[in-house]
Design goal:
By secondary structure, this protein is α/β, with parallel strands linked by helices. Helix content is 35%, strand content 12%. The chain is built from nine helices and ten strands. Strands 3, 4, 5, 9 and 10 form a five-stranded parallel β-sheet that branches. α8 crosses α9.
Length: 299
């Protein structure tokens, strides 16, 4: 009977008819509870209280307002001498002009800050090494994960959460958001978010577009769901593990492209990144940089 009662509460929670996405703080005490015994349902992976499923009603699903569907492929240019590339500057200016929550680098921080982010679509055996380094160096990071990766690597996801990192939403099936309609966009985001809620007791308000492809219409939809779209201003071709060039190459490439306010994109599948990460962090700190979490961004 206890199992049936808990299941009923979960079903009722998901059918509440809310017209907007419920944004629950990942550290909040919200939980699904049995009404008679008051026993909280917790995740065996994280020990956190399970969060109720989120729901969302898409506004203007047919885009009758005619918000632009022109495809944009995020480009950042190569920063040099501690200065973001003009492409990144132009892109950030565009994001700010739209009024939607989207960012490729921090223009508001007065100090030299870096936001470290990883994209995670699959596991190549190096993420634990990355997490070990982050723990040793006491550096926060954000891992943007697809639903497939979350399902296939639950222990890694749980470790990210328990060690204080952000697990960002990278969609359920990694589609090109410039090629799908508004309802599909919302479904992709909700499916990933609700899996995290129901299995890890976790949610976050950060989203990264698959392939970095988007439209203004997509930006508006993600914004309306309460998410911040996080792009990047510094990266390199580290996702192709057939073309790794070694620890020193990763170190030189990453450090040469850093600049104040940088959002750094790396991929945890790269053995080069895993090997060089500690030295990259040390170099950045020796040169006056501070690593901050995305939650400190003012967008």
């Amino acid at each position: 009977m206890l199992i049936l009662s808990v299941a009923l509460v979960l079903i009722l929670s998901g059918c509440s008819g809310r017209g907007a996405l419920e944004e629950t703080d990942a550290d909040a005490s919200a939980a699904v509870e049995d009404s008679r015994t008051q026993i909280s349902v917790t995740s065996p992976l994280t020990g956190r209280k399970i969060l109720s499923p989120a729901s969302f009603t898409v506004n203007d699903p047919q885009n009758t307002r005619g918000i632009s569907n022109e495809k944009k492929e995020h480009s950042f240019g190569v920063a040099k001498n501690g200065i973001p590339h003009e492409i990144s500057k132009s892109t950030q200016s565009y994001f700010e002009s739209t009024g939607y929550k989207a960012v490729c680098y921090d223009t508001k921080a007065a100090e030299k800050v870096i936001y470290l982010t990883f994209d995670c679509g699959w596991e190549n055996g190096y993420t634990d090494d990355v997490l070990d380094t982050l723990k040793e160096k006491k550096v926060p990071a954000a891992f943007f994960c697809t639903l497939e990766h979350i399902k296939n690597s639950p222990e890694l996801i749980a470790r990210m959460i328990k060690e204080g990192h952000i697990v960002g939403n990278h969609s359920a099936k990694h589609p090109n958001f410039a090629e799908i309609d508004r309802q599909r966009m919302a479904d992709e985001i909700l499916e990933c978010d609700n899996y995290l809620r129901e299995n890890f007791g976790y949610t976050s308000s950060f989203f990264r577009f698959p392939e970095g492809c988007y439209t203004e219409n997509a930006l508006e939809l993600v914004h309306s769901m309460g998410y911040t779209s996080v792009f990047w201003s510094s990266a390199y071709a580290d996702w192709d593990v057939s073309k790794t060039k070694g620890k020193d190459y990763a170190f030189e490439t990453v450090t040469s492209r850093l600049h104040p306010g940088a959002i750094l994109l790396l991929h945890s599948v790269s053995p080069d990144n895993a090997a060089a990460l500690g030295n990259i962090i040390d170099w950045a700190r020796q040169n006056g940089y501070e690593f901050k979490a995305l939650t400190e961004l003012k967008v």
